[in-house]
Amino acid sequence: MACFERVSPALKEILLKLYHAEKPVEIDHHLYEFGCVEYHVQSSAADPQNNYLSISTPLLSQGALLSCGLSSYTTQMVKQVCSDAVEIVEPAKEGYQLTLKLNLAKIPRGKDSYKVITQISSVQAVILCSQLKEMLRNVNSQDTSQGMNKPIKLVYHPREPFYVIRQPQKITAVFPMRFKEHSDVIIATAFFQELMDVGSSEKWAKAPPCTWSPIPPPELRGEPLEDLSTNGGFVSFDISSRHVEGKKLDKTVWSLLNFYAYVKKHVKGTRGFIQRRMQKRLESLVEVLNKNPKHKIDNQRALQFSFLAIEKLTVLHFDFCFSSPALQTVILDPT
Question: Where in the cell is it found (predicted)?
Answer without folding.
Answer: Cell projection; Cytoplasm, Cytoskeleton
